[in-house]
């Protein structure tokens, strides 16, 4: 049975997709025999784009799985022998309307993705789910389907409060819908060590996590253009060309 990880943050621009792409790719490099599936559930399709998938030309996406037209195995794209991805595109931006206005067809709207994964998770060792920057229906499906959640944290002015809100939401969701779910790690993302504010916010986050028995990774992902450059120029995550990338260290902590 696969270990299922989702990455969650209700704010865009915090490096969420970059993180899940590089963590999955780093694992693929370190464990080439492990069977890995990535699921892109964000309407921007950035996880798909990170691996060179043209989301404008794919015939079927995760949207088709949500509405019951396709199985995950039907639409996965083979990136390598043991690395596969289920793509997403802008169709996912309307999935809430498609599901929530037809509850007679979807009586368990929070468990659509979980049920889809259960049909094939025995074929994978790891599944990584990217989510949209919100705590709506799609993210709820990811949390319901996951064993572990990873939470990136950008140490800006309201960052600690936003982190606390997300962690509280995950805790409440787990109690009601998925008691097997737990936080694998919180980690600092897009950190600028030159600013005192970032240092202060990181310390506040560490104190909160320590007080509430939540693991906060020692590894910090600093602000840099190299991750965007890797995708733009190489159509692959940066870990494939940078063997000293901090995502290898973060992967150890997440696992």
Automatic annotation (TrEMBL):
Residues 3-182 form the AAA domain. InterPro entries: AAA_dom, DNA_Partitioning_ATPase, P-loop_NTPase. It comes from the Bacteria. This is Sporulation initiation inhibitor Soj. It comes from Aneurinibacillus danicus.
């Amino acid at each position: 049975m696969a270990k299922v990880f989702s990455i969650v943050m209700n704010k865009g621009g915090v490096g969420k997709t970059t993180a899940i792409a590089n963590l999955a790719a780093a694992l693929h490099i370190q464990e080439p025999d492990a069977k890995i599936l990535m699921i892109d559930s964000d309407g921007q399709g950035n996880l798909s784009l990170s691996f060179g998938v043209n989301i404008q030309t794919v015939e079927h996406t995760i949207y088709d799985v949500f509405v019951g037209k396709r199985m995950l195995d039907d639409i996965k794209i083979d990136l390598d022998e043991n690395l596969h991805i289920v793509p997403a595109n802008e169709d996912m931006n309307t999935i809430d309307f498609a599901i929530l206005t037809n509850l007679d067809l979807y009586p368990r709207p929070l468990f659509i993705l979980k049920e889809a994964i259960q049909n094939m998770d025995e074929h994978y060792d790891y599944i990584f789910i990217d989510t949209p920057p919100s705590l709506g229906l799609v993210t709820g499906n990811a949390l319901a389907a996951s064993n572990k959640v990873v939470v990136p944290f950008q140490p800006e002015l309201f960052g600690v409060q936003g982190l606390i809100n997300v962690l509280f939401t995950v805790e409440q969701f787990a109690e009601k819908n998925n008691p097997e779910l737990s936080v694998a790690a919180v980690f600092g993302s897009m950190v600028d060590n030159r600013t005192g504010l970032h240092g202060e916010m990181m310390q506040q986050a560490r104190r909160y996590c320590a007080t509430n028995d939540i693991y906060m990774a020692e590894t910090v992902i600093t602000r840099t253009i190299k991750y965007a450059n890797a995708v733009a120029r190489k159509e692959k995550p940066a870990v494939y060309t940078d063997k000293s990338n901090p995502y290898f260290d973060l992967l150890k902590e997440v696992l």
